[in-house]
Structures are given as C-alpha cells and as structure tokens.
Amino acid sequence: MADIVFSRKRIKGICIIALCIIGILLLRLSFDQLHSYSNGVEDLKKGNYNNAVMYFERVLHAHIPFSPLEGKAKNHLIGLASGFEKEREYEQALLCYETIRTSGYLTRHFLVPGSKDIPFLNDRIASIKAQLLVKDGMVKDFKEGYDQQMGIMDKDYSPSVFWSLVAVAAFWAYIGFIVLWIFKRRAIYACVFCLAFIAWLTGLYMA
Amino acid sequence: MNRYHLIFLLSFAIFICFLTPDVNTGDGGELATAAWFLGTAHPSSYPLYLMIGKTFTFLPLGNIAFRIAIVSALFSSLSLTLIYWLVLRLTTSNSAALFSVTSLLVSYSYFTQSVVVKFYPLNLFLILLLFSLWAILISVKRQVSSIERQDQISIQRRNEQLLYMTMFIAGLITANHHTGIIILCPVALAWIMAKEHPPKLKTVLIAIALLLSGFLVNAYLIFRGSSHHFFNAVHINNFTEFHEVLTRAIYGGSGTIDVATHGFQGIASYWQSFKNFLSIVTSNFSSFYWLLFFTGAFWLARKNLKLFIFMIVSLLLYGPLLAKLTLGSEIKSEIDYYIVAHQYFIPALSFFAVIIGTGFYQVERMLKAARLKLLSTLLPAIFAIFPLVFIVSRATDSNFRTNFVQYQIAKDTYSILPSDSVIMTFGDNAIYQGWYLKLVGRYREDVCQISSPSQKKIDWMFQGCNKKIYGSIFPMFYSSNFTEMVPMIAKYRLYGTDPVKDTGAYNKYLSSSTLSIDYLYMPQAAFVKNRNQRGENFDSFFRKRQLEADKLINCSVCLSHFTDDFFSRQLCSIYSIHLTNMARLYSDRSYHRTGEKVKVQIKDMRSGYSQPLFTVYVTEKNRPYLERATHISRFNQWPILYFREKE
C-alpha cells in the first residue's frame, strides 16, 4: 500500500513538473508570438514589407496550437502575396507563399499545422515558378513548368508518423524497463524490454 | 513541490528564456534534420541524441529546431539538479549546493551549450549521473563499517544496482559522444577504492549484458543508415562502414581510437594543455573561485581522502588530459576557442563547480564558528544566489533567443535564386542549415543543393539533391560530363556559397561573380561553344538579379543578435557584401553623387574570399546601403568572443 501511495505521489509530482515545463514553453512562445506579431504589423503599416514577412514568419515558427495570432499572421502574409502578385512582383509573392508553406513543415508534429492551406499554396507556388521558368526559357510552356513543380512538391519523404511513434515509444519502453529491471528485478520487466527492443528496431526499419 | 523540483524548473525556465528560436550555427541544422528523418549525422552519429531529439519533434509547440534545442535545456537543468543533490549530500548545506548550481549555470560555456541544438548537455548528464552515484558510494562507505547482516544484504544489492546502472549508462554513452567514456576510469578507481568484494560471476555476466543493452542503441545506425532511407549524412550499408562511423575512423587521425592511442604522445604539450585548461576554467569562473576550489579540495581531502581522489582524478581527466587530446597547442584562433574550448570541457567545469561548493561550505562553517549569527545566515544565502547577477552578461553574449542569423541567411541564400537552380554549398553552416531548410522545411524545392563537391562522397553531396526528386529536372548533374551541364549553367542556373578560387578544383571549368549573398557560377568561355547556349546579356541579368535580391533578403538580423557566436558574426559579413554591391550599383552619376567617395574592401568571412580595395562614389541612393554595411561590420566585429576578452 505504501508503495502504491508512493508511486501515486511520484506520478503526481512528475505530472506537475511536466505541466510546469509546458507552461514555461507556452510562456516563451506566447511572448515570441506577441512580440513578433506587433513588430510585423508595425512594419506593415510603414510599408517595410520585407521586415513584415520576417516577423510574421517568426509568429508561425513560434507555433502554439489554436493560437489566433498565427491565423492573423498567415492572413497578412497571404494578403502581401496577393498584393505582390497584382503588382507583378512575382518573386516577392513567391517568398510569401513559400514562407507560409515552409513554416507549416517546420512546425509539424503528428500533422502539418495549416495543412488545409497546402494545396492552395502549392498551386500558387507552382504557378509563379512556371511563369518564371517560361520567361527564362527553362521550360517550353506553363503546363510543363507547373507539372514539374507540382511533381516535386506533391511528394513527402518524411518518415511515417505511425512507425516513428512506434520507434519512439518502444525506445523509451526499452530504456525504462531496463532501468526498472535493475531496481526491481522482476522477470516480466526483462521480457518487456526485450519486446520493446524488437518493436524499436521494427519501428526504425519501417519508418 | 520540493527544492529539487524548484532548482530544475528555475534553471529550465532560464534556459528556455534564452533558447535559440530556430536552427543555430554549427551542427544544429544537421542534427535537427537527422533527428527529424531518423537519419544519421556526422560520425559517430549520436543515435541516442537523435532518438531523444526525435521524441521531442512530436511536441506540438514551436518549430522542430526549437524542440530539439529543448533537449539541451532539459539535460542541462537535470545536470544542475544532480549537482545540487550531490553537493547537498556532501555538505548538508543548501547554500553551498545552491552556490555550485548558480555558479555553473551562469558560466559562459555551460550556459551557451544549454541553449543551442547540441549533444553535449546529454553527454554531461550521463557523465554526472555516474560521477554522482559513485561519489555518494565512496562518501557513505566509511559510515557502514559495522552493520548487521540484513543491512549487508541490502548494501550488496544496492552495489549490484549501482554496477548494473553504471554498465548500462556506459553502454548508452557509446551511443552519444565518446568523451563520456572517460568517466569510466575514475569509476573503476572508485570501485577499487571502495574495496568492493569481487562480484559473482552471475553479476558480471548480467553487468556485461546491460553494457551490451546500452550499446545496442547503436543498432539505430544499422537500421537507419542504409542508402534507401531518405536522409543520411553518412551511409552505413555494411559492418565496415558501421565501424568507421562508430569509431569516427572516417576522420583519420581524429578518430576516437587514434586520439585515444596517439593523443598522449608529445610530453611538451602536457604543460600547454594544462595552461589551456586553467585559462578555460578561469574564463568561466573568474580567479576568485580558485580560492574556494582549494578550500573545498582541502576539506574534501581531510574529510574523505578517497572521495577527494575520485573527484580530482575526474577533474584532471576531463580537464588537462582532455585538453591534451583536443587542445594541446597554444590557442591562437577564435575557432580553437569556439569549437574546442567552448564545448568539450563542461564536464570539467561541473566537477569544478562541485568542489567550489564544498569550499563555499567551509566559508559558511567559518562564519558560523565565528558566531556572527545574522551574517552567518544571511551572507551564505546572499552569496549563494549572487552569481545569478552574471545572467546579465549572458544576456549580451549568449542570448540565442535573439539570434536568427543562421536561419535567415540560409533562407535568403535560397530566396534569391531563380527557379530551377543548383547551388553548391560549402562549409557546415551553409550545408547543414541548407539541409534543414530544404529537406525538413521543404523551402524552395525547385532548387537542388549540392554539398561540398570536393568531399567526393556521392551520398553526402546529393543529400539536398536527391535523384528521386531531381533526376528528371537536372539529369546532367548526375553524370560526370561537364559539357552536358553547360547549357543550364549558361542560363545562370548554377550558384555557390563560396567563390570559385583560382587554385580550386573547378577553376578549369567555372568562374564566379559575387551576386548578392551568393556567387554566380559561369562556364569558362572555352566550354561555351554554341552561341544559343548563352543566356541573356550578363550585365543586364546581373543587375536585374542584384536588384531583385535586394527586395528578398533581410539584413536586420545581423544588427539584433546579442550573441558573440563566432559563426553568426562570420555569416553577417555576407550581408555587408550584398549591401556594398548595391552601393556600387547605385554609385552611377545618375543617382546624384554627393562628392564623397569611400574605399571599400569586401571580405567574405564565410569563405575567406577577399576582393581588392575599390572606390565607391557616394550618392543619395547608395548612402543608406553604405551606412548599413558599416553598421553590420562594426556590430559583428565585437572584440569578443568571450574567451578572447579574458586574454
């Protein structure tokens, strides 16, 4: 009974620590987002678009799920991109679209934040690049350039999320049950860490 | 919540406050990319670190590089908590323990390594775990000389657990940085000094099995290092390659086994190594701490000679001896300071911090013995937290939170390239951060990145230009026939982060011109046989691209980073080059010359390339560019590196 109480207390302590860690990270990222967003809006008002893009990108990189500032930053970037396209500043428009797209990929975890925007962004990016490639004589026509660019952007060579998770979970189970076995010496722990090791290798191979 | 939790959380909060917001210079981009793709990094590939890094990439907060940098902050905080626990156990004084922690936390090298993407904090934690456990074993040994049989069994079991944990952690260390293995020498000495009974055969066999269990984390290299996985800085397709990567044999004389066997030669350099080590400690802790160190060492020697020997041996091995292996000659360049002095010695600094904690305890005891009631309570408490004042220094030289230089330069390098370009990247900062941006961030996927072509390792070269993706767009770059590449190059599609040098390998084929922050490569005239292969007029294209690049890049990052990061300062010289080139572009009479002229010399600190001195006529249009170039140069020519200031 004392063991159970002790374990519960320890688990409670670990949970509190974990929550504090998350809290510290959220504080840091919230500050970063607020600071960058306000700088971005200020630069936008001054017409300093290059700086504005940089700051809005930082808002996206300081990703917090469901953060309203990220949506606003993204809208500003899309607004800038549309404006650049209208003024035929295609490379600056490209910079904005690529920035949003890259920010999604650099902040992905189980999924890509803002993944619903990816098809639209891919389309705009491919269109702009196709136009530029035609102009430079690198491709015969718009369709060839567009298809070429979409062909590159459609593929994702990242490891499988599922198998990566299996590898990560099994890895920690492997380490954890070895340590548990050292202190508790129960045969079941030895069995589990062997299984975890196999699962880890399987996850690594399949990912 | 107890004091250990508080120590951990407070130190963690401080590190997070200064944590790099994105990818940092050096290995950061490579480690982040390898962790994300579950790939391999440069030898010895650090599979333990990569698995932990991969775990953190699933955190839905911040970006991937930020999440992996959290690993550094986490293990640095855990290490500080461990040091607090150890010093408290040795001295029973909260103030002494706190003093050790605060002194180490604010020390330059420890602090900087805790806020960037790097594996040294994890290495330190594993070393400190073994150091602390064995230090406690030796320190309690004297207290258990006469005990009952039941307690003896319990002690035997505890010692077995310690042995098993030691072997398991030793195995894990082989899957991270190899300097971690050095701790096994003082641990073996501690075992001997503790006069432990020789273990039973069963215990030995289990210990070996646990060592192997830890070592088997390296199986990662075999399962993820093969050619058919998408990203691998090094490929491991057979046992020979596995051995070469694990032992760093790829680096020739700098491989682990070579350094361990030949590094001790040259008696004369022992003295220089010792001086270098003293210089590193004094830079991190100041001269005053030596007083506390000797006071603490003296007390330890009197209290428990074996413990004293254990600690001093650990310090000497990770201090002067490691300096002999890695920093055996006079430190002359910033590179020596920044890459070697700054990274390898944090275990030694940690041991030093433990001993100064015991010295602080002695001072505290003296105050209590002098019966200065209020002072003996107040002064230790104040001095225990006083070192935190030096966080202000860290906020000006290690404030990586403000450092976006590496990310922005990597991004700008690609932003200014025309569609469907190829860029050759040279040096870790261009290659690794390019991999991170292109492969993880999928930025400018139309650009093919070829890394250090002179390396001759095809798998390394084409990490950023995988044939699966670019084979149909740039088929000519996968053959070794230069003439097939000429038509594409003549259309201004080949760039580099370094110029083609007169004595370089490509001088026969290519020439280069500075274009904004990159170099435009052109085929030598002899290879351009067909006039139709030439693109639009060079001057017209050059001017157009330079003006376009000016709209796309952002130099302000080089005026807002509060770090003395050596590589960031180097990289910022590239923006000065761009600004100076813009100033030249706008120096024509049509831009209303002011009558002033300035002599300018461009030096690319990243590649070492220098242009001869030239004159720029100041106009209303180019004046802001010249001023900005000057500001960036001055801002990034800090007389620090922190270590240099101490000279």
Descriptive report:
The complex is a heterodimer of chains A (207) and B (647). By secondary structure, chain A is an all-alpha fold. Chain A is built from eight helices and no strands. Chain A has helices spanning 2-46, 49-61, 68-86, 90-106, 118-135, 142-153, 161-184, 187-206. In chain A, helix 1 runs antiparallel to helix 2 (49-61) and helix 2 runs parallel beside helix 4 (90-106). The longest helix of chain A is centred in the N-terminal third of the chain and has 45 residues, at 2-46. Chain A is flat and about 70 Å long. Chain B is of the alpha+beta class and 647 residues long. Chain B has helices at 3-18, 28-37, 47-56, 64-91, 94-106, 108-113, 120-141, 149-173, 184-193, 201-215, 219-224, 239-246, 256-262, 268-285, 288-303, 305-326, 334-341, 346-369, 373-385, 391-397, 405-415, 428-440, 458-461, 467-470, 482-490, 538-552, 566-585, 623-635, 642-645; strands spanning 398-399, 422-425, 448-451, 494-496, 510-515, 518-523, 562-563, 593-600, 603-604, 609-610, 614-619. A five-stranded mixed β-sheet of chain B has the order 3-2-4-6-5. Chain B has a two-stranded antiparallel sheet with strand order 1-7. In chain B, a hairpin with a 2-residue loop joins strand 5 (510-515) and strand 6 (518-523). In chain B, helix 8 (149-173) packs parallel to helix 10 (201-215) and helix 21 (405-415) packs across helix 22. In chain B, 53% of the residues are buried.
Task: List the main descriptive attributes of the protein structure presented here.
heterodimer; A: 207 residues; mainly alpha; disordered N terminus; B: 647 residues; alpha+beta; 5-stranded mixed β-sheet; two-stranded antiparallel ribbon; 29 helices; globular
Quick recap:
The complex is a heterodimer of chains A (207) and B (647). By secondary structure, chain A is mainly alpha-helical.
Please write out the topology.
The complex is a heterodimer of chains A (207) and B (647).
Chain A: H1 2-46, H2 49-61, H3 68-86, H4 90-106, H5 118-135, H6 142-153, H7 161-184, H8 187-206
Helix pairs in contact in A: 1-2, 2-3, 2-4, 3-4, 4-5, 5-6, 7-8
Chain B: H1 3-18, H2 28-37, H3 47-56, H4 64-91, H5 94-106, H6 108-113, H7 120-141, H8 149-173, H9 184-193, H10 201-215, H11 219-224, H12 239-246, H13 256-262, H14 268-285, H15 288-303, H16 305-326, H17 334-341, H18 346-369, H19 373-385, H20 391-397, E1 398-399, H21 405-415, E2 422-425, H22 428-440, E3 448-451, H23 458-461, H24 467-470, H25 482-490, E4 494-496, E5 510-515, E6 518-523, H26 538-552, E7 562-563, H27 566-585, E8 593-600, E9 603-604, E10 609-610, E11 614-619, H28 623-635, H29 642-645
Parallel strand pairs in B: 2-3, 2-4
Antiparallel strand pairs in B: 1-7, 4-6, 5-6, 8-11, 9-10
